[in-house]
Every structure is written in structure tokens, then in C-alpha cells.
Design goal:
The chain is of the alpha/beta class. 29% of the residues lie in helices and 12% in strands. The strands form two sheets. The chain has a six-stranded parallel sheet, with helices on both faces. Helix 4 crosses helix 14 and helix 5 packs across helix 6. It is globular and about 55 Å long. The N and C termini lie far apart (50 Å). InterPro entries: AB_hydrolase_1 (IPR000073), AB_hydrolase_fold (IPR029058), MES/HNL (IPR045889). This is AB hydrolase-1 domain-containing protein. It holds the Pfam family Abhydrolase_6.
């Protein structure tokens, strides 16, 4: 897509290459329909031109026009040895050689033997996926955590993963995050969890932290939107000027409410997924993602978070940076950290935007390490 205007050209509508989820009921012609006209609207609703301004800010990473207002590690290295370890886990079947910085270890090696899980504030991780992903993306993390004695729960947010809801019908962040807030509400009194959010999941766990701060021991942001009060996820993308061809070309807007209304969702084009999210990920996991990812609901991305120091601010926060990330560049991650400093920052070398695929062992070790950090 040479530029954003060309993307919305009625004479050359982009091909809808991303398959529709089987559970959605929207017809295919309506699903791929692009903007054919631009009409001025008044009042509080988002106009056509404002939607384009939003899209430009989101996918070209330039500042949003102030006139548009919306409510909306370095990981441990295991020493190598010349002797073959009979107890090592089997080698991945991927054709990509495993990085020496992410060696395969027995699960029990990933937890210090002098640490008793019962002595931790909590050993229960709740994993929240990013935009377009689903609970399925955490399958390696779940296996490693459970084999090490931890509890792990992965949530499908509304319209994501196998959740049978049309992403185009989601109107606000509370609706999108409802499976997570329902889960936290049902936790027994006195029980706490460690919330882990990836990508847009960072905004989602922030929303939950404001509501259920007393049930959250720690929050971990993995290449995630870690926002301040009054920010929306678009603000994260406008922190850095310039444009990203991969980011811009990978997006297709969906107008399920008609061309004269704002976008309802964003589709991620299948051919460009690897370069954007999975540039260090094994081919088998890229294949899994290509048939599992679903459209990202647009209204929640626009919604500004209301976060207080008394609630959200009372939860201990940790950030994990992904240093080979093509989706949320390191300067953007660092800007969020500088504006809203967490308790500690960790780094994953050689990790793309999806470290649960590209660096599962290193990510696991960091999660375990964070679970053991005592209050200062």
C-alpha cells in the first residue's frame, strides 16, 4: 500500500486474504467492503475523515491530529557442554536451528530448587493475548509453567480465539475484556494472580487492574501497551514519528456497518504476518497463527483508559522488552517505560513480537523470576 489514501481507493479495493472465522455470520462481500465515499458528519460520532486520521496515526505511527478527540533479559544462559544430556527435552521439529540463547531445559531446571512455590504470594499466572491473537498463542508458556508446578490460565477475550462472537460487533473495551473481568470476579476471596498481557493485552490488563487491583499480585507487560491515565492504544503508536511499510501494508479495515460509518475491525493480511509478528518464530508456529488469528475490534483501540494511583497504581508492574520486534519497536517500548515506569524492566534478546513462540524458554525463566521477586 503506497500510502493510506491508496488503501482506501474505491477503484482498487484490497483483496481480503485473511479467512473469515467460521463462527462469524457476516457475509463475505460485506466483510471485505472498502470505503466508497466520504461524508461529513457532525456531533460526537467519529466522522469518515476522523477515521482516516485515526488510521494514519495507528499504522503510520505519526502524531494524531489534536482536533480529533476520542474516548477510547537478558535471559539466563545455560552453559553448554560437550557431553550429550540424556535428560534433555527433544529437539524441536522446526527446520530453524534453535538459538543457543534459548536452550531446551528440563522444567525443573527453570525454578531454583531452594524456592518453594507455596512460599510465593501466588503461583497462578493469567495470560492475556494481544490484538488478533487468542489463548492458543500461550500453549508453550502454559506447558512450561504447569510442568514447573505453577498454575496457568489463558483467556480468550471477546471475539478472539474460539470465543464465538463477531469482532465487528464489539463496541467498547469493557465488552472486549469481559471474559477476563468475569474470571477475576469469580476468584475466591483472598486469592491473587499474576496478570500477563501481550501487545494490546497490556491495555486490557490495565483496565482489569483498575477494577480488581486487590486480586492482582503483579502485572507483567510483554511488548505491550503500558499506558498512562487518559491514554488510548493509538497514543502508543504515535510516540514515534515516521512510518513502517510492513505495519501499513499488513492492515485492512473492515466496515461491517457500511462505508459511511467508522471501521469496525482491522484484519491482518496473512502474507505479511511473518515479517510483522513472527520474524524469529519457527515456521510451524507461524502456520498455527496464520489459521488462528482473527480481526482486531477497532472501538476498544480508541478508548481512553481511566487509571488511578490508588487502584491501578497499587499493583506492582514489570515490563519485558522484545529486542527484535517489528510490530512495537524498541523505541516505542522504551517511551512507554519512561512515561509510566514499572518496578523493573527485563530484556529478551533475539525475541520478535511473539516471544511465546520465538523465545519460550527465556520468557518462561523471566516469568518465574518475576514470580519470586519479593516486595521491597
Amino acid at each position: 500500500m503506497g500510502n493510506l489514501c491508496a488503501t482506501f481507493s474505491p477503484s482498487k479495493p484490497p483483496a481480503n486474504t485473511f479467512p473469515n472465522p467460521p463462527s462469524l455470520s457476516i457475509s463475505s462481500n460485506r466483510w471485505s467492503r472498502m470505503r466508497s465515499s466520504r461524508r461529513e458528519k457532525t456531533g460526537d460520532s467519529l466522522t469518515s475523515e476522523q477515521a482516516l486520521e485515526v488510521a494514519a496515526a495507528l499504522f503510520q505511527k505519526r502524531p494524531l491530529d489534536s482536533s480529533v478527540s476520542f474516548d477510547r533479559s537478558t535471559s539466563l544462559r545455560q552453559p553448554t557442554s560437550g557431553k550429550k544430556n540424556r535428560n534433555a527435552l527433544p529437539r524441536s521439529s522446526s527446520s530453524r536451528p534453535r538459538s543457543l540463547t534459548d536452550p531446551l531445559l528440563q522444567p525443573q531446571q527453570l525454578v531454583n530448587q531452594d524456592i518453594k512455590l507455596d512460599d510465593l504470594e501466588t503461583n497462578h499466572f493469567v495470560l492475556v493475548h494481544g490484538g488478533g491473537f487468542g489463548a492458543w498463542c500461550w500453549y508453550k508458556t502454559i506447558a512450561l509453567l504447569e510442568e514447573a508446578g505453577y498454575r496457568a490460565t489463558a483467556i480468550d477475550l471477546t471475539g478472539s480465539g474460539i470465543h464465538s462472537f463477531d469482532p465487528n460487533s464489539i463496541t467498547d473495551l469493557s465488552q472486549y475484556v469481559q471474559p477476563l473481568t468475569d474470571f477475576l470476579e469469580k476468584l475466591p476471596d483472598g486469592e491473587k494472580v499474576i496478570l500477563v498481557g501481550h501487545d494490546f493485552g497490556g491495555a486490557c490488563i490495565s483496565y482489569a487492574m483498575e477494577l480488581f487491583h486487590f486480586k492482582i499480585a503483579k502485572a507483567v507487560f510483554i511488548a505491550a501497551a503500558m499506558l498512562s491515565d487518559g491514554q488510548n492504544t493509538l497514543d502508543m503508536f504515535s510516540l514515534q514519528a515516521g512510518s513502517d511499510d510492513v505495519m501499513r501494508q499488513s492492515q485492512v479495515f473492515v466496515y461491517s456497518n457500511g462505508n459511511d460509518n467508522p471501521p469496525t475491525a482491522i484484519e491482518l493480511t496473512k502474507p505479511l504476518l511473518k515479517n510483522l509478528f513472527f520474524n524469529q518464530t519457527p515456521a510451524k508456529d507461524v502456520a498455527l497463527a496464520s489459521v488462528s488469528m482473527r480481526p482486531v475490534p477497532f472501538p476498544p483501540v480508541l478508548e481512553k483508559l481511566r487509571l488511578s494511583d490508588m487502584k491501578y497504581g497499587s499493583v506492582r508492574r514489570f515490563y519485558i522488552q522484545t529486542l527484535n520486534d517489528n510490530a512495537i519497536a524498541v523505541p516505542i517500548q522504551e517511551s512507554m517505560i519512561e512515561r509510566n515506569p514499572p518496578e523493573q524492566v527485563f530484556y529478551l534478546k533475539g525475541a520478535d513480537h511473539s516471544p511465546f513462540f520465538s523465545k519460550p524458554q527465556a520468557l518462561h525463566r523471566l516469568l518465574v523470576e518475576i514470580s519470586k521477586i519479593q516486595r521491597p
